[in-house]
Design goal:
Shape: globular
Radius of gyration: 23 Å
CATH topology of the largest domain: D-Maltodextrin-Binding Protein, domain 2
Number of strands: 11
Number of helices: 11
Largest sheet: 6 strands, mixed
CATH architecture of the largest domain: 3-Layer(aba) Sandwich
Helix content: 40-55%
Strand content: 15-25%
Number of domains: 2
Length: 326
C-alpha cells in the first residue's frame, strides 16, 4: 500500500523545498560578473553614480560589476532592456527620475511603469537652480518676477533637454506667474549654459553641477534652488519654498532597480549593500564632485511609491504642454 501525504501537507513541503533552494541560491549569488546599465553617456551624472556604485558593489560581492552605457531615448532603452533581462540578479539598472516618472508619460513607446521593476534604493539626488544671464537687472526672485511680467514679448526659458524636469519646471513657473513663456530646448547642460551666458536664452532651470562655477564667477545669477534644503554648492541661494514657490520643489535623482521577480534573498543583499555604499564617506566624497547628494533609506516600496507620486505630478504637466517624446 502506497502512503500519500494529504494535499495541503504536500504543498507546504513543496514550498519549503522551493524557499530553501531560493535561499541557497541567494547566498551563493553572485558567482559571476554583474552588469549595470547606465542610461547616459560616459561622464554624465548617472554614469558618475553608476561607476562609483559599481566599484563599491564589486568590493562587497567580490565579483566585477561592469557598467554598460545605454544613452538613448530618455532612459527608455535601458529600462526596456531590464524588463527583458533574466530575473537572476546579474543585470541591474541605474534608474533616473526622468526615466521612471516622465518618460512613461511622454513617450507612447515606453510601455512601462515603476511597479514593473524591483526598485532597490534611491542613491543620490540634486536640485536644479533657476538662473539668468547676469545682465538681467534683477537682484532676487521678486525682482525677477517683475522683470518677466514687464517683458513686451513672451519670455523664454531654456532647458538642458526636452522632456526633462528643467523643461517642465519652466512651464510650471509660467503657470504660477500667470504669464506665457516659450521653451527653448537644448541637447545638453553645457550647451544650455553657453547660450545663457551668451544672452541667447538668458533664463532657465539648470543643473547645479554645471552652473555653479558660472554663478560663482558672476557670469550667471541664481535665484532659487529646487531641493527641499539649500544646496551645499550654493548655500547663499534660497530654495523655491523660501521664495514662495514650493510647487516647483523637485530633485533629479538616480537609484538602483532590478528585473521583476528577482529572488527576495538577492533583493535583500542588494539593498543592504547599497545602503552600506551610500552611507560611506568615500561614496559621498565622489558624489560631491558631481554635486550629487547621497540619499539613504529610500528603498523598496517607499522608493516605488515616490516614483508613482512623481509620475502623477509630471503626467499633468506633460499633458498640459502637449509634449510627446520622439
Amino acid at each position: 500500500m502506497t502512503f500519500r501525504l494529504p494535499v495541503p501537507v504536500r504543498l507546504a513541503f513543496t514550498m519549503v523545498v522551493i524557499c530553501t533552494a531560493c535561499s541557497g541560491y541567494a547566498q551563493s549569488w553572485p558567482e559571476r560578473p554583474i552588469k549595470l546599465l547606465a542610461p547616459s553617456a560616459a561622464g554624465g551624472p548617472p554614469d558618475a553614480y553608476a561607476r562609483a556604485l559599481a566599484e563599491q558593489l564589486a568590493k562587497e560581492f567580490s565579483q566585477p560589476v561592469v557598467v554598460e552605457n545605454v544613452p538613448a531615448a530618455g532612459g527608455m532603452i535601458a529600462a526596456q532592456s531590464i524588463l527583458r533581462a533574466p530575473a537572476d540578479g546579474y543585470t541591474l539598472l541605474v534608474n533616473t527620475a526622468g526615466m521612471m516618472t516622465i518618460t512613461p508619460n511622454a513617450n507612447p513607446k515606453a510601455q512601462y511603469k515603476a511597479a514593473d521593476f524591483v526598485n532597490i534604493c534611491q542613491g543620490v539626488e540634486a536640485g536644479l537652480v533657476l538662473a539668468t544671464n547676469s545682465s538681467i537687472k534683477a537682484a532676487n526672485f521678486a525682482e525677477l518676477t517683475r522683470w518677466i511680467h514687464a517683458e513686451k514679448t513672451p519670455s523664454t526659458y531654456s532647458s538642458y533637454s526636452p522632456g526633462s524636469p528643467a523643461h517642465f519646471l519652466g512651464y510650471q513657473l509660467g503657470e504660477l506667474l500667470k504669464v506665457e513663456m516659450t521653451h527653448i530646448p537644448y541637447k545638453s547642460s553645457p550647451q544650455q549654459i553657453s547660450d545663457m551666458i551668451g544672452g541667447i536664452a538668458p533664463l532657465g532651470f539648470v543643473q547645479i553641477a554645471t552652473a555653479a562655477p558660472h554663478i560663482q564667477s558672476g557670469k550667471l545669477r541664481a535665484y532659487a534652488t529646487t531641493g527641499s534644503q539649500r544646496s551645499a554648492q550654493l548655500p547663499n541661494v534660497p530654495t523655491v519654498a523660501e521664495v514662495g514657490m514650493q510647487q516647483l520643489e523637485t530633485t533629479v535623482w538616480f537609484g538602483l532597480s532590478a528585473p521583476k521577480n528577482v529572488p527576495p534573498g538577492i533583493v535583500r543583499r542588494l539593498t543592504d549593500a547599497h545602503q552600506k555604499v551610500v552611507a560611506s564617506a568615500e561614496f559621498a566624497a565622489r558624489m560631491a564632485t558631481s554635486s550629487l547628494n547621497p540619499t539613504p533609506n529610500v528603498c523598496g516600496n517607499a522608493f516605488t511609491k515616490k516614483m508613482e507620486d512623481e509620475a502623477v505630478r509630471w503626467a499633468r504637466i506633460v499633458k498640459a504642454t502637449g509634449f510627446v517624446a520622439d
